[in-house]
Amino acid sequence: MTEGNFVDYVKVHLESGKGGKGSVHLHREKFITKGGPDGGDGGRGGHIIVRGNKNLWTLLSFKYTRTFRAGHGEHGSKNRSTGADGEDVFIDVPLGTVIKDAETHEVLFEVTEDQDEKIIVKGGMGGRGNWHFKTSTNQTPRYAQPGMEGEELDLIFELKVLADVGLVGFPNAGKSTLLSVLTSAKPKIADYEFTTLKPNLGIVQYRDFQSFVIADIPGIIEGAAEGRGLGHYFLRHIERNSTLLFLISADTNDIKEEYEILLDELRRYNPDLLEKKRLLAISKSDMLDEELMAEMKKELDKEFKEIPYMFISSVAQLGLVELKDKLWAMLND
What we know:
Helices cover 16% and strands 24% of the residues. The chain is α/β, with parallel strands linked by helices.
């Protein structure tokens, strides 16, 4: 999944179909002079239906098509023939898509299961034909109901990536490099901040043909919850991760301080994120000798008594097997 193809927020306009008109018809047949009313009902207008699709990872298709219109119902006809229903429109979205009202921003529902369907805009009902209105005092009604108008709605589709593990860290902490080593994903990697502009997903192959999904979220900086930097656009994706892997570089001045800043940004965005399982990985540990690493461990043991931590290096392949073992254990605990 390349950065240019990743779209996670779109606004769409939906219009359901109008119901068909009921028919005003009086039966005429040889030897039957007064057959009575036999006008059929109009068909209902087409619905617009949202459907989950596990094979989609992005809202890219809505980048080019943002207006959807369902078909109108056909009019009723003689012999009580009901008009055909308008054609329904199915909109496939990735799992993890949140549907919101564009005006109120109220969450209408979330798509979490493959092939799960929900009528999002109902088509107008078809009008009843004149045979419905026949009574003992009005045996030849010459009127029928018109079809009901369809509905128009502006909605927001917001994708929250479904991944088992979310990488959380400052820009240039080594998240993309770690993703490229653990998975077959090929994220853009460079030695400057904000290399990652969109979330990247990768599948980590584990023992016995098992696997789990890991997501590289663009770097978070202090003030992200208020809109600074790029990471605040993608904090929503962390909400769907069951485990958060905090990645902090070994050459940072204060590991504890950086961890607290990241934690505070998550807290300000959504306090529920603090309920998720957390693991701290000290990246770029190949720069440390044994003596320096031992000193850092003593300090980290004091500062991180409740959060497990480990030293890793994506370039030197240091501690990666242990990291996968730990993540797998946390995911299946």
